[in-house]
Amino acid sequence: MFSGIVEEAAKVVKAERTDGNLQLTIRSSFANELRIDQSVAHNGVCLTVVELYPDSTYRVTAIQETLDRSNLGDMTEGSLINLERSMVMNGRLDGHIVQGHVDCTAVCTEVEEVEGSTYFKFEYDVTPELVQKGYMTVEKGSVTVNGVSLTVCDSTSRSFRVAIIPYTFDHTNFSQIKVGTRVNLEFDIIGKYIARLQELKG
User: Fold this and answer.
1) In the chain, what's the furthest Cα-to-Cα distance?
2) Phi then psi for 133, rounded to 5 degrees?
3) DSSP of 113-143, one letter per residue?
């Protein structure tokens, strides 16, 4: 379980395909605090640490299903990737409840500077059936973009905007997002449960 508060935009030092999987080696300031089998969110995708190295790097494996549903397959050497370790349950929930299960990807279609913040517009494609299951955004609701917990504005059935303050821009890979960039989305789990209850009620 995560909160969507990114700890670090870390650098990918190696991205290697093996047997259909993607092996990502990442250099992180907290790599020496990790352990094998620990869960870490990478651009919002929960992955397991499988190898630790003495040079402040570690390795995770993304299987094909993960690559099909996320933008991790776009990662190359030098890419920045947002990292968050799992949530400590005795602390404050500064973001919102994030599972680390990416629902789909979206594409950035607009970047606009507005009074000190940067507005990003994202468009995504989901079926009406998935919308009925809660795969959608709502005005002033929560959404996770590349693992970052954000508040939705200008929500439509296929798009939304988020406002990024300078701190978030500088400390996540939003600094590398431009028109055409593909990002990971995780819709609000509470909305999914409500949609499921409504579905069961008929």
Assistant:
1) 56
2) -90, 5
3) EETTEEEEEEEE---HHHHHTT-S--TT-EE
Q: Which of 74, 140, 82 is nearest to 107 (CA)?
A: 74
CB 135 within 8 Å of CB 126: yes
Q: Residue 89 is which amino acid?
A: M
pTM: 0.93
- 54 pLDDT above the threshold of 90: yes
Neighbours of 51 (CB within 10 A): 12
Which residue has tokens 């970052």? 148
At 89, give phi and psi (nearest 5°).
Answer: -75, -5
Complete DSSP assignment for 147-172: TEEEE-BS--SSEEEEEE-HHHHHHS
| Predicted confidence (pLDDT) per residue in 65-94, tens digit | 999 999 999 999 999 999 999 988 777 788
Strand order from edge to edge, sheet including 148-151: 148-151, 142-145, 182-187, 104-114, 117-124, 159-164
Tens of pLDDT along 111-120? 999 989 999 9
